[in-house]
């Protein structure tokens, strides 16, 4: 609910269990009042009588007012949401003031507000596919304007009350005749209660994404960021914040947030000397450039945020449900859950032929696979990684009959067909580059740095975006392709573009635009986002894709840590997780088949092992695990996640995924490291119905235990006490009374 009191000029945004309030002060400034949990039986509105009064007793600290939108001008010591430059004044400028140009000062004052149900943030999906929950949501749009300069800014707050989530974005407009230079622009600034300084985020690298880290914010700024045209491996744009020592997995007040944007981004956490905490999130200010020409408008993507008093787990579950219900597209004629995928990359690498892919497809179908994906090497001159990127036509050397025979056989076997592409890249050894060497990011007279023998196409050029769309459109029009794995395998260097500094936003808009157009034209199509593994995962790309490739690292024990960090923000439904070889191709370590499946079954299950290397007994084992996963898939991909044990505390990872009605659950435990001679404790479950009776079944559907929900939530499930390193198991829990 959105409520405005015209007498006190106070806004109350009421969500299921939290409140966000702000007020227009006596100088028409929009000032933050409070954000946090509200009493369960409290339906009253905040009057605005209680307001924070920042101290201005010292000339060195008078810029601590909690403006909803902090602007450079009267704020300069601390971080700001918006910084702009004006070439002159709208009225004639005295000659004596000319040396002071440009004017780098913005003061915004309240003009009006409205509540609408059709607002969308910038770069919102344009494919037209519905989401699971299509109920309209209220958006508060508050219009502010500079009293002197021709700049208006609307602050937008879209409410999803059931998950206690607000989406914030800004809408800027130049109402004058002279261009305005925007030098810094975050999507929003959040004001948190004093002392909310324990930050949970993730760091990483290629093959080690989503490594959880917790730290105490210093006085000053702590920044997590990535500078490229994709989200990046080094960090991910989400966070959890709480008071130190006052939150844990299922207890305590936790503030959380995430950016719905896949480009150069920054989250800046600022603690003032008075212990005020602010979070600024949006476009990375480094090399940022945005020119608002006369009459131009700009709408930022969304900063998604919320608060709960159910610990880190409660924050995760809210983000998961929000993503499943409000972010992910629902394609036509697709399975209700993500299908089991087989990818042939590790079986054949670049040595693909029509016949060996058909043989793999037959083996994949026999073990229960539902989607067969042909990976790199099918197009142009792509025999190795040094050539062919950019030439998105089927190679007659590899497939002399085109893809029709392979696709026909895959479909005959009852599977859908998928194809790997890397549309943003080009090899210098390609027909596209030879025809258009100017179509890549570069600076004149400077080297063009190659990574993996490839360069990045300049998506600031409309003709480049159109060429790539047409190439992919031709493939989808000619072949029965149900799935695309969209890859992107390098970070940007020499980011010279025809659009200048705007390339950081233009590249993202180009990628989003291609995907939106393809999905609108082919509503049955599903897409996986991949960028050398987990380099493009965020709420912006998830509005256009169905799943993400979490990491190129498929080592089961490494994946436990990666997937645990991933689960802090993103749901299992989108987390593609493969079972690969006994000896992992990336790490060289050996893991039992059960461990590999138990880890992969925590997400959207995929198979990446060479089926040609498996004997009949092993193939039967694969088929048995796949059949088990199909029985529990709807729970894993649609249930509520409880992290019962985390690696950081127990060197073991135990999760429980429970259907919202408490009728069924999946229990999964993986021991990462365990000392001989020690016993592991039983882990109490959560989210069940205490009075209900449950059966605990193994993958063979044998009942291992019958107990009440109360017993399971107080005592746990026995059987893991002597678990050695690498021990794992997955159990299906069903209500039977």
Helix and strand topology:
Blueprint: E1 2-5, E2 10-14, E3 18-24, E4 30-37, E5 82-86, E6 109-116, E7 139-145, E8 151-160, E9 165-174, E10 180-192, E11 198-203, E12 211-216, E13 220-226, E14 238-242, E15 254-259, E16 265-271, E17 277-283, E18 290-292, E19 297-299, E20 303-308, H1 311-327, E21 341-343, H2 345-348, H3 354-366, E22 371-374, H4 404-412, E23 416-421, E24 425-426, H5 431-435, E25 455-456, H6 462-478, E26 483-486, H7 503-521, E27 526-529, H8 539-542, E28 547-549, H9 556-566, E29 575-579, H10 593-600, E30 604-607, H11 616-638, E31 640-645, H12 647-650, E32 652-658, E33 664-671, E34 693-697, E35 703-708, H13 709-714, E36 728-735
Parallel strand pairs: 21-22, 21-30, 22-23, 23-26, 26-27, 27-28, 28-29, 29-30
Antiparallel strand pairs: 1-2, 2-3, 3-4, 5-10, 6-7, 7-8, 8-9, 9-19, 9-20, 10-17, 10-18, 11-12, 11-14, 13-16, 14-15, 15-20, 16-17, 24-25, 31-32, 32-33, 33-36, 34-35, 34-36
Helix pairs in contact: 3-4, 6-7, 9-10
